Amino acid sequence: METYLKIEHVSKQYGQFTALNDISLDIRKGEFICFLGPSGCGKTTLLRAIAGLDLASSGKITQGGKETTFLSPEKRDFGIVFQSYALFPNLTVSENIGLGLRNQGKDNKTVDDAVNHWLEVIGLPDAGIKYPNQLSGGQQQRVALARALSLSPGLLLLDEPLSALDAKVRSHLRDEIRRLQRKLGITTIMVTHDQEEALAMADRIVVMNHGVIEQVGTPQEIYQKPASRFVADFVGNMNFIPASVVSEQDIRIGETLLPKPCDSLKRGVQFELGMRPEDLHFLEIGKQTASSFPVKIEELEFQGTYVRAECRVQGEYQGGTIKVDVPIRELRELALERGHYHFVNLSNKHAHIFQAQT
């Protein structure tokens, strides 16, 4: 598929502070991309550089074959939706949606037809005569989306569009935006710090930290094959279990010897074993294996479809607690309770190796 937006070696400095450091990225036509990362990682700065709201200090941005690096926002082809909706409170919903079209000099009938079309698309056909303050937050956000899309932009930019909404509305609107984006086939970039949102919505996720890209990949790749400890820690839950290589065959966790998870680990190396809570599991009493180690259950947190067990590794152990996700059915079969001792089994297939934290 053709590249629609090309970002080459883009950097952005604010005085001594580097907000973006040599960012390169290709975005394909019709893709839904999420920029994901903690506050201050550079994701909004990158979005604003693409929009021309904050010009890059160096590098090159090409959209649809045309260089846009230093163009003013009005000369670029995009629609943008902010976290704050940014609707005009003194204009009706219809007037808000039609404003851009009127500014382009479109006649009344064209504007009215477009407004009615978009009110239908966002599921608010009767809201045209209302003012923004008469709508809920979720409805206002849909109007902001319709306003951005009414000009048929080549690129849709979403800056944390759902973070001001409550969980249920957010989940519903998430599905709506994704459905609409697929239907229109519009290239979309969304900035978010919510990993669940990114995993649910994106074709590809760009994980950022300290102004650089840590990893680009599909939600499955980011989750199952994190490229760095930061990505593993930021996306989903990950246990980091301190371990050391004690022989050609064995590693030590706490006071237990276990088979080496990969051949490349050399004797004497200290490392961290990364394991998702759902990839660890308890064994029935008396059924421990060569790949299991003993723990004491300290907490059991009910999470709906599963229970998260917080466990302490027995013996001399430098790490914190280990989380194990147990499906409800399994919980009943194993009769797990706080204070009980059990064996946890490691699966090398799901293990990630990270350098020990100094």
From TrEMBL:
GO terms for molecular function: ATP binding; ATP hydrolysis activity; transmembrane transporter activity. It comes from the Bacteria. PROSITE patterns: ABC_TRANSPORTER_1, ABC_TRANSPORTER_2. This is Phosphonate ABC transporter ATP-binding protein. One of its GO terms (biological process) is quaternary ammonium group transport. PANTHER family: PUTRESCINE TRANSPORT ATP-BINDING PROTEIN POTG, SPERMIDINE/PUTRESCINE IMPORT ATP-BINDING PROTEIN POTA. The keyword Cell membrane applies. GO terms for cellular component: ATP-binding cassette (ABC) transporter complex. NCBIfam families: PhnT2. The keyword DNA-binding does not apply. InterPro entries: AAA+_ATPase, ABC_SmlMolc_Importer, ABC_transporter-like_ATP-bd, ABC_transporter-like_CS, AminoethylPonate_ABC_PhnT2, Mo/tungstate-bd_C_term_dom, P-loop_NTPase, Transp-assoc_OB_typ2. The lineage of its organism: Bacteria, Pseudomonadati, Pseudomonadota, Gammaproteobacteria, Vibrionales. Keywords: ATP-binding, Cell inner membrane, Cell membrane, Membrane, Nucleotide-binding, Translocase, Transport. Residues 5-235 form the ABC transporter domain.
